[in-house]
Prior knowledge:
The chain has helices at about 1-15, 25-30, 50-60, 70-75, 100-105, 120-130, 135-145, 155-165, 170-180; strands at about 20-25, 40-45, 65, 80, 90-95, 110, 115-120. By secondary structure, it is of the alpha+beta class. Helix 6 (about 120-130) runs parallel beside helix 8 (about 155-165) and helix 8 (about 155-165) packs antiparallel against helix 9. It folds into 2 domains: about 1-120, Beta Polymerase, domain 2 (2-Layer Sandwich), CATH 3.30.460; about 130-180, no CATH class. The chain contains 9 helices and 7 strands; from the N terminus they run αβαβαβαββαββαααα. It has a 5-stranded mixed sheet with strand order 1-2-5-4-3. A two-stranded antiparallel sheet has the order 6-7. The chain is globular and about 45 Å long. About 55% of the residues lie in helices and about 20% in strands. Strand 6 and strand 7 form a beta hairpin.
Amino acid sequence: MFDSLLARIAAKLDALDLPYMVIGGQAVLLYGEPRLTVDIDITLGATVDQLTMVLKAVEAIGLRPLVDPEPFVHETMVLPCEEPDSGIRVDFIFSSSPYERQAIEHARMVRLANVPVRFASLEDVIIHKVIAGRPRDLEDVRTMLIKNRELDSAYIQGWLDQFDEALDEPYRARFDALLGESL
């Protein structure tokens, strides 16, 4: 069910030349332990000025927005949608930051239902999870670090250093502690 929906989403976003990557629980499933996830999170390399194009994609995919799109997206940078038949929620996150552009370029192609789908790289999933910082996110990071010994920790640390400086948060220290625990 998720695979076919992800394939439909990817095909439509690619057809519209909208950069994207799958993040969140669906991406964790690639790199971590199987766990229940009931939604799909997609980061778009798009600004809110491209909302009309995203809404066309949403309609073509067969999703329905769960909010009044214009004011909600301008306020939150997120367009929550649902596939009516399955009830699967799909959140489209608008972003054009230098980090998100780099992460989308760094994405990994995975074939689902014979369609290439762009998933965030292991390193970028870890960065997202470390920044989110919730207990479930940090447990996901621990699991991914244990299961994936080959990763570019310098890439992760470099971006977390930049976020530390910009947001005055201890993201790098959080990651380094988790990395130390996983050894």
